[in-house]
Amino acid sequence: MQNSGLKRRKIRALFIISILLLLIYAKNLIERQSFQSISGTFSEVYNDRLVVEGYIFQISEHLFQIQKLVDHCNLDYDYSKVVDEIEGHENRILALVEDFEATNLTTQEDEYLSDFKKIIVNDLTIKSYDLLYNENEGVNVDQVKLYDQKISQARGDLENLSTIQMQEGEKLISKAKRLINRSQIWAQFEVALLIILIIVMFLLVFRKSEDTKGMIS
């Protein structure tokens, strides 16, 4: 009878130990996935938000240079090649837009970026300098105002895109915080499991020792 009872306790203890080990293994798998998610989240913050904010800044600079050339802000400037210079800035903008399009865009980002691209391609392309200035009439004020209006519209799209970067970045950081907090909870859970495992193994060894003494006596 004693042997039978001892055997049952051993089986029960081994069963409990097996369950605890499986739980620890499952916890480690979940933790590994969590760390991968955290790593992916921070990569997304960098690649799709911080880098994109850099694109927006560079695009804004080129747009500012275009507006300066269109508005004839510098009276001492040689405007003989202004159309080529504007085209150069536009090409660099479109190259940055292409890099922007390769990132993970939200629906709103896609809409604002598409609208911005249409303005650059369709509304700000200047085929002839005469559209801006001629020797007889000077600066074509109406045309310049139209270009300025389109540039302001393009700037509005950039501002909206920049706002989205902030909002999406905050969402990703909040997600990362949740994952980190969850990992901390799982770490505490693992410590609790290890303590239970030690107690069970101690009781198993202790009872085995007591049972052995009882059988000898």
TrEMBL record:
Q: What is this protein called?
A: Four helix bundle sensory module for signal transduction
Keyword terms:
Membrane, Transmembrane, Transmembrane helix
Q: Domain (Chemotaxis methyl-accepting receptor HlyB-like 4HB MCP): give its ranges.
A: 9-171
Transmembrane stretches, by residue range? 185-206
Q: Known InterPro entries for this protein?
A: HlyB_4HB_MCP
Q: Does the keyword Transmembrane helix apply?
A: yes
